[in-house]
Amino acid sequence: MPELPEDLAELAELCGVQTVFTDAAGTTRRVSPSTLAAVLGALGVPAASPSAIAESTARVRDDEWREMLPPAVVVRQGTETRVPVHVTDGSSVSCWIELEPAAAPVPPGAMPWRVAPVPSTGRRGVSSPAGDGTTSLPVTRHLDQADVLVEPRIVDSRKVGRATFAVPGDLPLGWHSLHAESDGATATTTLVVTPDRLENPQASAGQLWGFLTQLYSVRSRDSWGIGDLADLADLAWLTANNAGADFVAPGPLQATEPTAPVTDSPYLPTSRRFLSPLYIRVEDIRETAYLSSADRSLVEWAGEPVRDLSGDDAPIDREAVWDAKKSALEVVFTAARSAARQTAFDEFVLGQGRGLVDFATWCAIAEHLGDQEWPPDLLDPTSSAVATLRGSLKDRVEFYCWLQWVADEQLRRAHRVGLEAGMRVGVVRELASGVHPEGADVWVQPVALARGVSVGVPPSSAVGPEGRNRGLPPWHPRELAKAGYAPFRDMLRTTLRHCGALRVGHIGDLFRSWWIPGATRATAGAYVTYDHEALIGILCLEAQRAGVPLIADDALLDDTQRDYLADRGILTASVLLADQAGSGELVPPQEFRPGGFVTPTPPDLPPTASCLAGEHIDLAERLGILTEDAQVLRSRARSRREALMTSLSRAGMTTFDPSERELVEGLYRYLRDTPAAFVAVNLADAVGERRTQAQLGAGDGYPNWRIPLADGSGTLVMLEDLFESARLRSLVTVLNEEA
Q1: Nearest partner of 571 among 427, 428, 681, 418, judged by Cα
Q2: Which of 23, 27, 324, 440 is the most buried (most CB within 10 A)?
Q3: Nearest Cα to Cα of residue 125 among 395, 353, 405
Q4: What is the overall mean pLDDT for the chain?
Q5: Using N-to-C axis directions, what is the helix angle for 339-352 and 394-420, rounded to 10°?
Q6: CB count in 10 Å sphere of residue 174
Q7: Residue 12, Cβ density class (10 Å: 0-12 exposed, 13-18 middle, ≥19 buried)
Q8: Which tens digit of pLDDT belongs to each residue from 243-296?
Q9: How high is the pLDDT of residue 519?
Q10: Long-range Cβ contacts of 556-564 (<8 Å, 24+ apart)
Q11: Which candidate, 168, 176, 166, places its Cα nearest to that of 139?
Q12: Dihedral sign from CA coordinates of 476, 477, 480, 486
């Protein structure tokens, strides 16, 4: 393993960039100097030459001494924490905390696109828990200085000393502000007190089970060519009443582009904070019922080209659906709203704050520019050019805010319908692991997300010798802290609305993330570490405030990370067929990892029956994307299947020669006998679907994320007909057996 220049390795360590990683063969490999320099550059640390490295090292060493207070302070409740305060050596200093105030009433009426900008929720102000920018008088706590001696140092020709203050462990949970004053100068930073352990409101409920699906694929006869939030409500009601299900998990629902092309993958949204209006049911908007006959005709005409698509077995056409829905929604948007409805809309916009208005502005500008390249003066959301254009596009900005309100209302109804039908959890939402590199979040948060790099996975036994480039911009750890973690907090608050649990995709990225510079291969990357105590603490805080348990979705977690998450009260997800021992045998159910969220197969593998039959191998071979010999893979799949069948039959879960249906039912019977907290039943397994939703590496050779729900013969399964499936009814019987 070649040696790295000592100065470059030192700088990387100072900046939290790891210089080695373990490859697919289990060999420790060193990151190349060029990769380190590129990753450091993306962090804002020049390292392209020895002189640049020397200058950056000197600057980074002293960075924390230049600021009176740290960029942000995140602590655990119940633990005293010491905070450094930097002042001119010998000067006196005082430090105090202003506790998070209670939210003031939301003023009705004026909207952000009609009046002055929404008050900022930046770290120098103290905002309400609702994020609406309102404030009230804080409660002040003065801090005691700890008896800690640290030698002063010369920084930028100034002798700087360090005082240490003790943040007590008895502070209430919440978003507070920490203040310091010395020689007439003051500084303020965000202080977040997080729960030591997330309280799980479902902990005493016993094992829960429900259906896992991709919402777009579950269509009804009233759908406009794609499963929508009204279908989600009906799915929740049907499965609660007819199957006794405790939850329904519809996959990511985050925002898509406002204009063509519309990205098919739900795991590549334009924003992780907001919802996709593709999932709105136009007829369920209250104002639709009161349209004039002429406007009602316009809505019906808009839907005509796509209404019949729900009965078509062709791949889902998101662009056709959005063109139709957008035209209809524009008609409904112009309809008069009652005073109560208008007030509800105004309160929603004010409650979501500047983030919603900026997102809606991005949508309006993207629509306005179309295929044109964005001019430089529009790339900065705070520029005067953007403010001017926002004013001229105020109706479109309001329209895109309104779409979010409507989608939020319909999601709330779906969750409520599930609970009222007897579900103990309701909707389980999923937070995608990243955003589109050219999407709204990157525009709204130009500093908090790093540029010139993308998140991926290094070469490993899990993903293969080439690794994987997921194409997602990563959080910038330093800039996110400087922002007081507000972008992360606001994303979580919106996502935690109207759900009974939240799945967090690739949560391992909050510990460390594999950064890939530019257009290089996934092998040419490096790990960048994050303050996981801060990020996961904030995740726990916001989830606890929402009363929502968390599920960590990441097959790449190591044992240390899993243990840490368990200590924080976060459930971890397991994929049974991926987590099997090398022999393919299952451990006895009672020895299965307790307290998690378990399903047989992940979204990027075929349903269980076809996965066990090795049909994903056949598909990859047809597409020419296999990285190993097909016969070797098939032989391995057969061995694992036989070992699985033996394990299940010995445990009494199946016969010794089970049919395909019996084998799938045996797997779920096994899962119901484990101590897992959540058992997620793939809806595709229930109806006999054999096709995978996505084939990684297939490009245009496969209709990724566009497969409508069908049975084993390829016949479409409509939402209304779910319980006409004998296979589904048989599986439900198994799921409701006494353990």
Answers
A1: 428
A2: 440
A3: 353
A4: 91
A5: 100
A6: 16
A7: buried
A8: 999 999 999 999 999 999 999 999 999 999 999 999 999 999 999 999 999 999
A9: 77
A10: 556/457, 556/460, 556/462, 556/506, 556/508, 557/507, 557/508, 561/508, 561/511, 564/532, 564/536
A11: 176
A12: positive
Residue 321's identity, in one-letter code, is: V
Q: Look at the chain and count its residues.
A: 739
For residue 644, give the amino acid letter: L
C-beta separation of 393 from 215 below 8 A: no
Residue pointed to by tokens 């105020």: 394
CB 31 within 8 A of CB 526: yes
Q: pTM of the prediction?
A: 0.93
The residue assigned the tokens 């750890």 is 477
What is d(CA 166, CA 582) in angstroms, rounded to the nearest whole number?
50
- Give CA–CA dist 662/734, Å, rounded: 10
Give the SS3 label for residue 361: helix
Instruction: List beta partners, residue 460.
Output: 464
Distance, CA of 610 to CA of 612 (rounded, Å): 5
Q: How far apart are CA 96 and CA 102, in angstroms?
A: 19
| 253-268 pLDDT, tens digit each | 999 999 999 999 999 9
Instruction: Tell me which amino acid residue 449 is.
Output: L
- Name the residue among 728, 725, 645 with its Cα closest to residue 681: 728
Residue pair 487/445 in contact (Cβ under 8 Å)? The answer is: yes
Q: Quote the CA–CA distance of 349 and 331 in Å, as a whole number.
A: 20
Angle of the 6-14 helix axis to the 50-66 helix axis, nearest 10: 30
601 vs 693: CA distance, rounded Å:
12
Distance CA 502, CA 495 (A): 8
Between 493 and 604, name the one with better pLDDT.
Answer: 493
Task: Find the distance separating the first CA and the last CA of the chain, reported in whole Å.
Answer: 53
Closest to 177 (Cα-Cα) out of 166, 165, 189: 189
Structure tokens, 581: 């021992």
Tokens 């929404």 belong to which residue?
118
Residues 284, 286: Cα–Cα separation, whole Å: 6
Which residues neighbour 371 within 8 Å (Cβ) at sequence distance 6 or greater? none
Rounded distance between C-alpha atoms, residue 169 and residue 195, angstroms: 11
